[in-house]
Amino acid sequence: MSTAIKPSHIGRKISRIRELRGMKQETLAAELGISQQSVSSLEQSERVEDEKLEQVAKILGVTKEGIENFSEEAMVNYFNTFNEKVSSSNFGHHNTCTFNPLDKLMESVDENKKLYERLLEAEKEKVAYLERLLEKK
Predict the structure, then answer these.
(1) pLDDT tens for each residue of 16-33
(2) Measured between alpha carbons, how far is residue 49 from residues 6, 33, 52 in Å?
(3) Is the dihedral of CA 123, 126, 130, 136 positive or negative?
(4) pTM assigned to the model
């Protein structure tokens, strides 16, 4: 059995990241200014020029190193760990709300109403003050 390390296939990594981003080959091709067939052959290439890899990385919203170091296994492990943390917190399956959101909404509406009424009263006082000043002149 061989213990040789499988070479990194950059094209497959680009393809997988593009798919995870929900981007079609046509979209990537348009952004790069090349044909869809060229993107297809790029994704079948084991190696990609650094300059082209930089362009692809920028369009995909990742770094060049992010593409080079991309690992499907690491991604799955990351999301499994994330899901374990979420399910063990209050954001998981045992959600309990200690207040009624509609009550909170109505409280804020009442507060806004009171603030508006105070503002209106202050404006009325200002107008009355200015009218008294005008009458004295």
Answers:
(1) 889 888 899 999 999 999
(2) 20, 16, 5
(3) positive
(4) 0.53
